[in-house]
Amino acid sequence: MKKLFGYFSPAEWALWAGSLLLISLSFALFDRANYLTLAASLVGVTSLIFCAKGNPAGQALMIVFSILYGIISYTFAYYGEMITYLGMSMPMAIFALIAWLRHPYKGKRSQVQINRLKGREYALMFAAACAVTAAFYFILDAFHTANIVPSTVSVTTSFIAVYLTFRRSPFYALAYAANDAVLIVLWILASLEDISYLSVVICFAMFLVNDLYGYFNWTRMRKSQEAAKPQEP
């Protein structure tokens, strides 16, 4: 327990505890029935604090979150979210977990070795994202997906986020932050019809804050890792 408490900084403990508290309060105020939503939110925000530390445990928790969130999305006919998380985010979280475990920083499994991508790889990633988005639009249209435009944009941001996570780039967190913003819009639209979904809105608002912190911390970790590299003579 002492080792666990020392692993997170006071600011990280405050962020994690504050996120858990706000998600729980929003559930008590707006939902009080869908405990699956509460479980998914708590698992998701916990995964983010571990991901912000570059810890593979975050990817393991993301696999669980993807399954739970896919089920929740199905209940409101957000088939794009369901297909994205069950068919893309969950498998990519598995690949990311393997990649993070295979690239520990100085042999420590608690922190991944952060990667720098080349410009050509970014170009290929965006080209693939466009192709995936176009394909998903027609799939979502065939399923009569609710709010199809933001649902399609969510596919784009999700693809970029999971790819960058797999490639161990700090920009994964900014891509997830963009995805959080899209999901906040999606679930606000859903809450106009069923106020209980406001708890999901609060959940993704907390995800947004955690992902922004994740980018900040990964940038700091990358500087630290690169500074520790032996200098060439």
Question: How would you portray this structure in words?
Answer:
With 233 residues, the protein is mainly alpha-helical. 78% of the residues lie in helices and 3% in strands. The chain contains 9 helices and 2 strands; from the N terminus they run αααααββαααα. The protein has helices spanning 2-7, 10-30, 35-52, 57-75, 79-102, 119-142, 148-166, 171-191, 198-227; strands spanning 104-105, 108-112. Strands 1-2 form a two-stranded antiparallel sheet. The protein is globular. The model has no long low-confidence stretch (mean pLDDT 89).
Order of helices and strands: HHHHHEEHHHH
Tally of individual helices:
9
**Major β-sheet annotation:** 2 strands, antiparallel
The main sheet orders its strands as 1-2
Approximately what portion of the residues adopt beta-strand conformation?
under 5%
Give the strand tally: 2
Provide the low-confidence segments as ranges.
none
Class computed from helices, strands and strand pairing: mainly alpha
The end-to-end span amounts to 43 Å
Whole-number radius of gyration?
A: 18 Å
